[in-house]
Amino acid sequence: MMCGLKCTGLKISTAMPEPSLGGDGYGDLLVYGTVGAIRVALLIEDKITAGPAHRQAERYQAHATRMRAEGWDQVWCILVAPAAYLAERKAYDADIDMEVVAELLNSPEPVRLAYRLGIIRRALEKKSSSGVQIPDPSMKTLKSEYLR
């Protein structure tokens, strides 16, 4: 179980970077797989320094609903973000801190593992040094209500 999802034995068949969300923008990563005979899709949004795009989690959820209507058994929207990122976490089906992802990575090849860990380390450093502040959830709510 990862991200709070019960998905033991997921066999990944394909991963698609920057998938279309059915005419409603693009996601970061769409992973297709199976758990036994159950078809599973993971729609993943990763955040480093930027705040959420307008209606981002809502657009992910709408696309997940369309995928289920097209015959996918389970479609989950997952947020991967630094622990300090608070915005929209509850709007996704699950979330996982980028720092936890770094702890979970493994590879029999030390060079490949170092490469992967380096990507996460640089992303976290970029977040820390960018000066971009993670949006306050109450300000995000205020802005959302204003836009409606």
Structure description:
By secondary structure, the chain is α/β, with parallel strands linked by helices. The radius of gyration is 16 Å and the shape is flat. It has a 5-stranded mixed beta sheet with strand order 1-2-3-4-5. The protein has one domain. It has helices spanning 56-69, 98-104, 110-129, 137-147, and strands at residues 11-17, 29-35, 38-46, 74-81, 94-97. The model has no long low-confidence stretch (mean pLDDT 83). It is built from 4 helices and 5 strands. Strand 2 and strand 3 form a beta hairpin. Helix 2 packs antiparallel against helix 3 (110-129). 18% of the residues are buried.
Task: Give a concise summary.
This protein has 148 residues and is α/β, with parallel strands linked by helices. The chain is 35% helix and 24% strand. It has one domain.
How is this fold's topology laid out?
Layout: E1 11-17, E2 29-35, E3 38-46, H1 56-69, E4 74-81, E5 94-97, H2 98-104, H3 110-129, H4 137-147
Parallel strand pairs: 3-4, 4-5
Antiparallel strand pairs: 1-2, 2-3
Helix pairs in contact: 2-3
